[in-house]
From TrEMBL:
This is DUF3581 domain-containing protein. It comes from Shewanella decolorationis S12. It comes from the Bacteria.
Length: 233
């Protein structure tokens, strides 16, 4: 299983160290958000790793929705029940909820299919900041706080018309930003293709906080800092 280096499991308890989370973010998702760095003041495990662990443990369902309810810290013990229904939550050993999952339809447990789905989704997700969020902020003339940049992964859902595929590719088809004071709600619509065949659609939502008027120089500094971290890695 390609996720093995990025988590530890004992019985039904799964934990992710800061180093494992950072390695997943950079090596698999190409995500260089400093919040996933070892030693970061507000460190958290990437939401995409939680998503990937759910698919690995419980299979790929035709219709799934993931709603993130909390930020997972270094070494938090998450309980992954052996058996789950069509609606379940991933909690810690104190019953604090971090992720809510709902699913419907047929379930695939093909390792190659699940790995392709995870790799392609998290690669798409990892490029959100530079390729999608920065142009959106410029378009709407707002920006996040460059001193404390905070973008929170809120939810993701997808609907597959068929599970008759192995390799899948994601492509963005629409993006929108709704601004309410200092809060920005981002909605990304994507399609999933197997070769030339459309096999599904999906939606990802993010929340940007601490919005302020757009300043080109500061945005360029943020972009340069992000790209610099990528190059350094």
């Amino acid at each position: 299983m390609f996720l093995s280096p990025y988590f530890s499991k004992q019985n039904q308890s799964i934990s992710v160290s800061a180093q494992q989370a950072s390695d997943f973010a950079k090596k698999i998702a190409q995500d260089f958000n400093p919040i996933h760095d070892v030693g970061a003041k507000r460190f958290c495990v990437p939401g995409d790793l939680l998503f990937a662990l759910v698919l690995t443990q419980y299979g790929l369902s035709q219709n799934m929705k993931f709603t993130f309810a909390g930020m997972v810290g270094d070494g938090v013990e998450l309980q992954f029940p052996e058996q789950v229904s069509d609606s379940f939550a991933i909690c810690d050993n104190r019953e604090k909820t971090y992720l809510q999952v709902s699913r419907q339809g047929d379930i695939s447990r093909c390792d190659a299919q699940t790995e392709s789905f995870i790799r392609n989704y998290v690669a798409f997700s990892g490029h959100n900041f530079i390729d999608i969020l920065m142009p959106l902020m410029k378009q709407h003339q707002v920006m996040i706080n460059p001193e404390r940049p905070l973008v929170i992964y809120e939810s993701m859902s997808f609907d597959l018309t068929s599970l008759d595929f192995v390799e899948v590719k994601l492509s963005l088809v629409q993006q929108e930003l709704k601004i309410d004071g200092k809060r920005g709600d981002v909605t990304l619509h994507f399609e999933l293709h197997s070769g030339d065949t459309l096999v599904g659609t999906g939606i990802k939502t993010l929340v940007m906080s601490g919005l302020r008027p757009y300043e080109e120089a500061q945005m360029q500094q943020m972009c340069a800092a992000y790209e610099g971290r990528k190059t350094e890695f």
